[in-house]
Amino acid sequence: MKLLSINFIDFFILKKILLFYPSFENGGATKNLIRIVNYLLEKKIKVILLSHNAKKNEFKFIKNLRIINNKPLKKFSFLPIRWNLALSSVINLFNYGKSSCNNSIIFSMQSHIPAIIVSKIIKKKIIIRNSEESIGATIYADNKLLAALVLILKFIFYNFADKIIAISKKSEESLKKIVFFNDKIVLILNPNFDKILKIKKINKDKKIKFMILSIGRFTYQKNFSVLIDAFSNLSKNNTKMELNIIGDGNQKKMLMKKTQNIKNIKITLWKKNIKNDFLKSDLFILNSFYEGLPNVLIDAVNFEVPCISTDVSGARDILVNEKGGYIVPINNQHELEKKIKHVIENYPRAKKKAKYAKSKIKRFGKINLIFFYKTFLELVNYNK
After folding, report:
1. pLDDT tens digits, one per residue of 211-223
2. All domains in the chain, ordered by first residue
3. Smallest Cα–Cα separation from 161: which of 187, 185, 137, 134?
């Protein structure tokens, strides 16, 4: 990617960004968004965040950010709360978008289809951030019928977006299959980290010779169940292994029940500081069905932890096509077991791969904030 020049006058052309993020979630996407918002505010651009529950989370600490909380609509109290809030967010986007100045755009992080429809009604330009590999997400979805319907709607409506940001090479390739005008697609990797870490390993339990770490929401998408089965099989012949899974979500009870009789598996609920967990770990595993650009995998690379990932969107970008780690087929317990065993038996080589991945990590740094900003500027200036 070439870093394009920004003229002095550009700073005064883009006035406001309506940030559409209806269902606030803790995680990597939110952390990246906070970095983007802070950068835009530094550039004297007004940012209005339309979201639910954002005032109770990290966004409340951002100075000069205006937050519009989506509140349940009394007139539609008969609807499930999720649908009610979704409708509330769309109405807020319509109202605030309609009253905004001409030099403003919509930046959609979620629920892109209603956001695109509103943008066309109020005649505002819109950028959407595509956070997953759409076709892969459909194939491996829990509810395949609903996922197929969403994919059809993407085929129709994504073509009406003014710009679409792909956050990984695989995501970009997937978008090119559903968007007719490929010049609308821009590849911008996530601005995931602030600095490259200097690593100093800490002591772990001497009884544990090999510590495996996995982090993510306890949901179907993350496929922790197969990882647990793989570990359970391997640990029968290696009692000095430990698996630490950190997260929370709707599969919490199921995962706790599944692991209660398996030795050396620890389920830990979300905590703010996971630095020591990375430092104690010998291997990080991402076993998802699908991803966008897995931020937690970038974090593991930054901590120089050897990594195994399923072949999801973003994994090959982060692990430099296996020069910096190991990639296994999605939902394949046998191949996952083989790869874990291989890493244990060839650990010096795994560490070399981890160091190589870290040497390439700057691609996910602050430079991408400039690319985001440049994309916003180009859109508001287009056809002026």
Report:
1. 999 999 999 999 9
2. 8-191+366-381 (3.40.50.2000), 210-363 (3.40.50.2000)
3. 185
